[in-house]
Amino acid sequence: MRDSPFIVRFLRSCNVDVRELVYERPHHLSEGTVVLGITKNFLRLPVVVSVDDVLRHCLIVGSTGSGKTSLAKRLARLLSRHGAVVVLDWYGEYCDVADRVIRIGREEPVEIPVEDPLDVVSLLEEVLELTPPQSYLLTKVLRKTSNVEFLLDLLESYVPEARWEIETKASLLRKLSFLVRYGKLLRIAPPEKLNSTLLSRGNCVSVDLSSLRVLELKRLAVLSTLNSIRYIQERKLFDGRVFVIVEEAHNVASRGDLLARYLAEVRKLNMGLIVITQSPAALGFEAMNNTNIKVVKTLRSAEDIQTIARSMNLSSDRYSLLSRLGFDEALVDAPSLSEPILVELSEIT
User: Is residue 276 part of a domain?
Assistant: First the structure.
C-alpha cells in the first residue's frame, strides 16, 4: 500500500473500495466468468474473462517449466463449474485434478470415430504426415470398401495401376506398419456408438496418454478424441458447454492446418479448446489467430517470442517482458481487455 498514490491510500483509509471507482465489471461478464488473476500493479484489479470467450478458444504458451500446466490445472477446476472439461493429458499430469481418468493403452483403446471411410484419410494424413500421392492412393483403396478395419490387407492386395503407385504403395505400407504393432490398441467406432460418457457436466475427465510411447499413436488418440467430442456435440448427445485442454499442441498437429481448421469449425458447437504449447512458432499464425484469449508465460526462443509478439501486435515494452516473466506472471490478451496486460496468476479462485 505504501507504493500506492496518495489518493488511493486516502480512499482506502476511508473504507472506499477503489476497484469500484476504476473497474466496472462488464454486464456481459456477469453470468459465467473466470478470474485469471489480478493486475500486476498497485490497483490489484481482478482480470476477468467471459466463459463465452473461452468457448472461442484460448491459447497458453510458454517455455518448459514456465508454469503452463499449473495454470491449465487451475483453469480445469474453474471451467468445470460451467460445463464438461476433457484434458488430453500427454504426460499423465492431471490425475490429481480429474474427477475421472481414462488410461488409453492400459485400460481403454484408442476409439477412432468413422462416419465415412474417407474420414480415415484426413486423420492418417495428419498423424503420419502422408504425401499427396500417398493420400490419393489411400483414398483410392478405401473407395472400394466400407470396412477400414482391414486397411492393411486392402492395401497389400491392391494392384498398382501405374508405375508411380508401386513406390507409393511400398512407402505407404511402411508408414501404416504401426497399425500391425499397435492394432490391439485401436477400435473403430461408428458415431452412434461413441462413448458419450466422456462428457460429464461439472466434472473434469483426464484422457491419460502417458502409456502410449509412440508419437503417432498419441497424435491419433488426440485427434480421434477431438473428433469424438465433435460428433457428440453435432448430434446433441450432450447438452452443455465442453472445454477441451490440448497439451503439447505443437506435437498434435505437425502441419498446423488441421488444428487451425478444427478451431474454426467447432466454435458453433459450444465447444472451446484450451491449446497449450511451448512452441507457438510451430503452431502457425492461422491456428493462433483462431484463439480468442492468449496467455503468454515466459519464452526463451527468439523465434517463439517474435511469433507470439506478431500475433498479439505487442508494443516494444510488452515485447521486452516475454523473456523475463516470473512463474506466477503472464501477459494476457482477451476481448474484455483494451490491450495485453501483465497479470499475477497466483490468486486465481
Answer: yes
